[in-house]
Amino acid sequence: MRVRWLRFAILLPLTATLLTATALAPDVKSLAAAVDEHYNHLRSLEAEFTEVYRGSGMERTESGTLWLKKPGKMRWEYRSPRDKLFVSNGRDAWFYVPEDRQARRTEAKKLEDIRSPLAFLLGKTKLEKELQGLSLAPDVQPLQPENFVLRGVPRALADRVSEILLEITPQHRIVRIVIEEVDGAATEYRFGEMKEDVAIADGRFQFKPPEGTETVEGMGP
Q: How far apart are CA 154 and CA 145, in angstroms?
């Protein structure tokens, strides 16, 4: 009898915890709709980012500042470990590395850069429409215990990307995006110090190659 009561005493709090977690778990459709609603009302966003690439037996970490502005404008200023710039005004996209003295340009509509899923942060897409099989990812450890993680396969990059993970805060902000490629490589973006609807001049999204810089037409890295 004592053994039975001991088992009951152990199982009761575990069961209560499981029921509580189940009750707190959001409906995927509702969560996706709330995220869409949040970003569809934003006009601009500024954030600090950390980008971690893992693949081919290596790991690379870079960081800097990101600016986004509707419609379709983005600027990534990498400061560590070296200066780089990725900028798009919605028509043209540029990738520039000062120490290489080379700038690559391509039409924004032809861009198939791995940063493309960051369109979620521009509020120009619907998660359920863009991500096939959108579901909760309870097996993925979030950065903060109160956050939720969604997973899905991007329709536009299905031949290149096997899965995307989105970490969502209770305020329906996206604080992490993990892009798993079909070759096993993964790129993770973490966002912090986010400022919404800040004033950003359109000139920040323009780029003119400095004198002496070689300009290459075509898709950037």
A: 26
Is there a contact between 62 and 77 (Cβ–Cβ < 8 Å)? no
- Scan for tokens 């990812």, then name that residue: 137
How many Cα atoms occupy the beta-carbon half-sphere of 6 within 13 Å?
A: 3
The distance from CA 48 to its chain's CA centroid, rounded to whole angstroms, is 12
Q: Are 196 and 204 in contact (CB under 8 A)?
A: no
Residues 125 and 152: their CA atoms lie apart, in Å, by 14
* CA–CA distance, 208 with 221 (Å, rounded to integer): 19
Three-state SS at 130:
helix
Beta bridge partners of 196: 45
Are the C-beta atoms of residues 146 and 169 closer than 8 Å to each other?
yes
Residue at 71: amino acid letter:
P
pLDDT score at 128: 87
pTM: 0.81
* 66 has a pLDDT exceeding 80: yes
Q: 122-144: per-residue pLDDT in tens?
A: 766 688 888 889 999 999 999 99
What Cα–Cα distance (Å) separates residue 179 from each residue in 53, 115, 118, 157, 165? 10, 9, 10, 11, 7
Give 156-192 pLDDT, tens digit per residue: 777 888 999 999 999 999 999 999 989 899 999 999 9
Q: How far is CA 74 from CA 26, 33, 122, 143, 170, in A?
A: 31, 24, 9, 25, 25
d(CA 82, CA 192): 20
* Separation between Cα atoms, residue 105 and residue 51, nearest integer Å: 22
